[in-house]
Specification:
The chain has helices at 6-17, 31-41, 51-55, 72-81, 96-109, 123-133, 158-161, 164-167, 169-186, 290-303, 311-330, and strands at residues 25-26, 46-47, 62-65, 85-88, 113-115, 140-148, 196-204, 218-225, 230-236, 247-251, 254-257, 260-263, 273-274, 334-335. It is an alpha/beta fold and 339 residues long. The chain has two domains: 6-118, NAD(P)-binding Rossmann-like Domain (Rossmann fold, 3-Layer(aba) Sandwich), CATH 3.40.50.720; 119-283 and 311-335, Dihydrodipicolinate Reductase, domain 2, CATH 3.30.360.10. Strands 13-12-11-10-6-9-8-7-14 form a nine-stranded mixed β-sheet, covered by helices on one side. A hairpin with a 4-residue loop joins strand 8 (218-225) and strand 9 (230-236). Helix 1 packs across helix 10 (290-303), helix 4 packs parallel to helix 5 (96-109) and helix 5 (96-109) runs antiparallel to helix 11. The chain is globular, with a radius of gyration of 20 Å.
Length: 339
Amino acid sequence: MLGAGWVATEHISAFGKNPKTEVVAVCSSTPESAKRKIDEMKISADVCKTYEEMLERPDVDIVSIGTPNYLHYEEVMKASEAGKHIFIEKPAGLTVEQLWEMRDSVRESGVKTLVGFVLRWNPLFDVINSMIDDGVLGRIFYEETDYQHNIGDWARGWKWYGKDELGGGSLLGAGIHAVDALRWFAGDGLEKTSDIVEVHAYSGGYRHRAGDIDFDGLVVAIMKLENGVLAKVSSNWDCTMPYRFPIEVFGDMGTIKNNRVYSEKYRGQTDFMTIPTVLPDSGEVSHHPFEPEINHFVECIESNRESHCNLEDSINTHEACIAANISAETGKTIELPLS
């Protein structure tokens, strides 16, 4: 485990529950913080004073990266070069150059990767994907996904999270989950995504002007996907409200609004029906389904197959976020892939 902060708790817990993995080493910014995390989690693991020391260990097969966003690029590159499989918290990188270099390194080394779009394992996401696959909505033509979270100095890591060059900004640093969701629901099949090919965005809000964060907290983008689906996505750090992650998917036979569905397939239906399930309605990392996510990654490593959520697939999601920032700044529509 690289990093001993907020998300490390859930990573360590999930790997500890998998019968085929155990956490053997923890490395953090200081040996003291690594030791505290080991004691907190009540695990039998060694403290590694340096990342290089950890990568040299023959009993380390997977590196789980839960460090601040701006460190991911260098850490992924080193793990790839050391031949370690890599679980990377999002965002994997902050620039297209970083993302391309990581992709090329992983291709060359042949290690397996998983980028932390943990909501793909949220039960509501399973419901929506299953209904789409069963033809409940017919042909999808439009989606809306939104990340609404008034992130502030109460959050661990705020000293870097609110800095554009360290955290990545509103959309790339956090709202990227909403971009990944719209690609996931538009995909042709249960474990496939559809690539975004065009982005036009605006940014605004009030917290940047107030000096609270050094980027616009609100980003709103219209995106076009390769299969013709249109989507609106937003990342709103300036909202005054509890955390929410609204999802709307429109097809020519029906509509899903969060866990409410209306479909012509169900004859006699006169209004939306509600499906009891777990919604992605909390920003707490403990609410997220890390256990099935990491179980999936272990299965991919064991069976020597690529995850649907690997680094290669995530490039398009990251590029769409970067393109939205470029579009908001220039007023231009940006085509993907970026060049």
